[in-house]
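Researcher: I need the complex structure. Ligand is pyridoxal-5'-phosphate. Inputs:
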Amino acid sequence: MDNRYAISQYPDAAKVTHQLDELIKKPIYSIKPEVLKNYEENYFDKKCAKSKALIQEAKKVIPGGVQHNLAFNHPFPLVIEKAEGGYLYDIDGNTYFDFLQAGGPTVLGSNPPQVREKVIELLNNGGPSTGLFHEFEYKIAKKVCDSIESVEMFRMLNSGSEACMAAIRVARLATKKKNIIKMGGAYHGWSDQLAYGIRIPGSKATQAHGVPSFVFKHTQEFFPNDLKDLERKLRTNQLRGGTAAVMIEPVGPESGTRPVDKDFNKGVERLCHKYGALLIFDEVVTGFRIGMAGAQGYFGVSPDLTVFGKVIAGGYPGAGGLGGKKQYMKYLAAGIQAGEKIHKALVGGTMAATPISCVAGYYTLEEIERTNACQKAGQMGDLLTVGLQQLIDTYHLPFVAYNQGSICHLETVGAMHFSLNWHKIWTIPAVIEATSVRKKQMEYMGAAYMAEGLVTLAGSRLYTSAAYDEKMIKEALSAFERVFQEVAVIV
Ligand code: PLP
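Model: Output:
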């Protein structure tokens, strides 16, 4: 094992995919309805009364009651008032293990003082932003360039979504080609063009509600882990405007919810070279989580452009960035470059690269590096996953558990495993129907975990951080066990 990385053993993608194929053929195992009812009445209604009341008021002024998808929770979202290390605390005084980690940014755990103190110092001096250059804009750019071999230049942006938009704009300008190919099921933020083939591979534009279909004229998807399908698209595109870029999440769509083979990324790189397309790695989740050198360091790949988000600002706002080779990054600067007149990609953001996000990001990366936090978080992910697998075996459940370091997956219903691959019998309405039943049960499992003191990402993904230790993971596993004991066939 290379101890610079979070992944001690890469999962066997074919095996996991087979297990997930089997899972969605089986009846649904979930929390027993009477146990869920007990959680609703005796935990949520009684012990989370302040959250309940506040969310009821919030629903009057915030659509759905929360501002962020990840905060949805059955029977109602909880209001968190304190976060520290691996723990979250709600306004009713309940404590939780944090496996959501703000959706991924907090590899060090929540609110580490080493970062907080630097941010406070900055606020006391110059406040959060001025619009003019700040020393830490340079410092974070230098840190990213020093850490990741393919990144020669870096531009800080507001979010992963923005950085994905910037990446495809640069790719089109640099290559003068039109098409962008993404992996089906992958999430690259919520911009118009990339809302294609989201969640369900093969679903094309059908899930992009509110986006006019002409926007997708030059966006395509290929089936996850399928290099032959990618090559078919690259070849066809030679006759229809060429391929500007192939964009992938390196551990597989939705942070590895559909895992890819270990040599898949190298295969994509080879095809990009063959067809003259840029390779864009979306490392919004994996950057500085899989290792300081990114997932690209782990897989030994040199993408042309890399998208950053989440960990890049350590849980502080303004978490996005685009990095890459100089010959492409130059499209983000104005005017004449080395005697050559180039058009500049339209990329902006009043609040992009504020001193607050640069300071928070810089000290987060320094601390991750100093403490080898990616590897520590990965070890905790291994412990958690091994423990979950033991529980699955003990209780004879069809669930699937696997991890890529500190990105852990616990699939109880396989709601995210459906696809419209040509050899599968699924149609969009059938998938929507099948997944809506499964998603409901996934929410119920999420509620059961929550009532037992475990905050997960939508009931199926668990991020670990370096703030965990073996004792905490053991305690968390006992809480999972309390839920697993109350699981039965539901449908
Ligand atoms: N790319 C990936 C792989 C993501 O997981 C996400 C967000 O979860 C994004 C892009 C979008 O990032 P942001 O939410 O910062 O816009």
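Model: Summary of the prediction. The mean pLDDT is 96.
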